């Protein structure tokens, strides 16, 4: 019967051919898929294969030579519909099917597009005068080198404004609608303006910046509490910054002497301490291995021995250490020749002295870290960057000032540290150095990344203070401002 045709086949042959036919069908479908599938271009090439730029003048040359529209005459043509930004903003608002809360872990930052006199004009001024100038500060430090080591404002801004497809940091992203922002970034280069403009011109620019910023609706809504203000040099914005004390200040330290920050201006509750930009090049793993046997100097210091405030301890240390066996104490600045001498000296030393300067902090701490030289910090009031994220006692020695100035005490202490402990601390320096090297593009676990992690931890209290300010008078119960001193502490030696 015609309807029973397949029942006449050999049952054994059917059992063999079914798997074979299935396999052939799968291969045919795969081949067909590969042929007709459209080729997807790689729209997000990895930047990790490109060597990051770590030198500020080189970074500026690259920035101005690129097609970045921020500093161009046609800045209004900035593409606001970057597909990467658009997609991720939607994820933030609506979540994803797999993880509806994924977007809540990423900081949304609105970057103000301030007039160019506050931003690009200042960067161009620095770049155009960098090679020609011989300007020195009152204490003899090269001005442009000083600006470099406080250029954290540039590195953070440069990462935020980069096209999303070129960025490597995924814990923060720029948004273009103020209502979608968690935080607001103020891209005013206060250190460049302080050092390179005439005094009265600088003060006038500061007043203009203050008015421009405090006139913004977002500032008025929160009284500046969710705004980020980079003032990394203690003189930056000094004449008017008291009017912006509610903002999140990015600082080099928490000086509590009153010389730089007035009581009530700064505190760890709202502000963030960032590392200086190192003056010396990073001594990478290969460099560390090559220099290990060459570290014949026990203790090294090169810098200014006469400083103000807490830095007066430098002259005392120089008096008790100078001429001692295995110790190199040199007077010098961070100029080009001084930079090379400092780098060479640190790479030949086991320990590097890092006493207080005019403020409790000093760029020398970070120069030592990236040089693989164990820092010996003598600054009782120092607050270090990223504390809570990093364990400094693994790679840094903190010594009380009263002990350090006792004749013979410090050298006896250092010589008593066994070689196993030294090698262990050196290995941690090699591991931790990446946390202190700014770069473009900003790298995961670099200082830019850790900065946003710390700020993210403050976001809940910031929002709480903004909410409380709408219904509570700023009296004793309104604990949303820095009270009294600057919340520093005296650190004991380890």
From TrEMBL:
Q: Which GO terms describe its cellular component?
A: Golgi membrane
Q: Where are the transmembrane segments?
A: 20-37
Which residues are in coiled coils? none
Location comes to: Golgi apparatus membrane
Main localization is Golgi
**One Gene Ontology MF term:** glycosyltransferase activity
InterPro entries noted in UniProt = Exostosin, Exostosin_GT47
- Keyword list, A-Z: Glycosyltransferase, Golgi apparatus, Membrane, Signal-anchor, Transferase, Transmembrane, Transmembrane helix
Instruction: State if Membrane is listed as a keyword.
Output: yes
Question: Topology relative to the membrane, per the entry?
Answer: Single-pass type II membrane protein
Residue span, Exostosin GT47 domain: 105-414
Hey, which family's this protein in? Belongs to the glycosyltransferase 47 family.
What is the name attached to this protein's record? Exostosin GT47 domain-containing protein
What is the taxonomic lineage of the source species? Answer: Eukaryota, Viridiplantae, Streptophyta, Embryophyta, Tracheophyta
């Amino acid at each position: 019967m015609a309807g029973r045709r397949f029942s006449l086949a050999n049952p054994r042959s059917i059992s063999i051919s079914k798997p074979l036919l299935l396999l052939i069908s799968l291969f045919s479908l795969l081949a067909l898929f590969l042929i007709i599938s459209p080729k997807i271009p790689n729209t997000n090439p990895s930047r990790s294969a490109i060597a990051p730029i770590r030198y500020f003048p080189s970074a500026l040359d690259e920035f101005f030579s690129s097609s970045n529209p921020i500093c161009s005459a046609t800045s209004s043509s900035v593409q606001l519909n970057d597909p990467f930004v658009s997609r991720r903003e939607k994820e933030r608002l609506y979540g994803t099917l797999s993880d509806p809360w994924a977007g809540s872990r990423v900081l949304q930052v609105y970057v103000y597009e301030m007039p160019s006199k506050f931003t690009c004009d200042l960067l161009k001024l620095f770049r155009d005068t960098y090679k020609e100038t011989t300007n020195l500060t009152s204490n003899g430090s090269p001005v442009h080198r000083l600006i470099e080591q406080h250029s954290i404002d540039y590195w953070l801004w440069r990462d935020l404004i980069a096209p999303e497809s070129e960025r490597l940091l995924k814990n923060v992203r720029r948004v273009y609608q103020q209502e979608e922002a968690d935080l607001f970034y103020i891209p005013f280069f206060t250190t460049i303006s302080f050092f390179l403009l005439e005094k009265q011109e600088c003060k006038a620019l500061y007043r203009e910046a203050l008015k421009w910023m405090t006139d913004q609706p977002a500032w008025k809504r929160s009284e500046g509490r969710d705004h980020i203000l980079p003032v990394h040099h203690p003189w930056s914005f000094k004449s008017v910054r008291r009017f912006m004390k509610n903002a999140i200040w990015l600082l080099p330290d928490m000086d509590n002497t009153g010389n730089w920050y007035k009581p009530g201006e700064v505190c760890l509750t709202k502000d963030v301490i960032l590392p200086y930009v190192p003056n010396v090049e990073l001594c990478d793993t290969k460099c560390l291995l090559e220099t290990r046997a060459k570290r014949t100097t026990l203790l090294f210091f090169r810098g200014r021995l006469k400083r103000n405030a807490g830095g007066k301890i430098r002259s005392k240390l120089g008096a008790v250490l100078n001429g001692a066996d295995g110790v190199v104490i040199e007077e010098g600045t961070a100029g080009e020749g001084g930079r090379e001498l400092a780098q060479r000296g640190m790479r030949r030393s086991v320990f590097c002295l890092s006493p207080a300067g005019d403020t409790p902090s000093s760029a020398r701490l970070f120069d030592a870290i990236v040089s693989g030289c164990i820092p010996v910090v003598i600054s009782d009031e120092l607050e270090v960057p990223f504390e809570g994220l990093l364990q400094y006692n693994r790679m840094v020695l903190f010594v009380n000032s009263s002990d350090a100035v006792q004749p013979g005490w410090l050298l006896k202490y250092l010589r008593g540290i066994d070689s196993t402990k030294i090698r262990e601390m050196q290995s941690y320096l090699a591991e931790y150095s990446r946390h202190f090297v700014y770069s473009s593009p900003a790298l995961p676990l670099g200082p830019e990344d850790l900065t946003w992690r710390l700020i993210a931890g403050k976001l809940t209290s910031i929002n709480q203070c903004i909410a409380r300010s709408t219904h509570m008078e700023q009296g004793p119960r309104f604990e949303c401002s820095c009270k009294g001193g600057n919340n520093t502490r005296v650190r004991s030696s380890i």
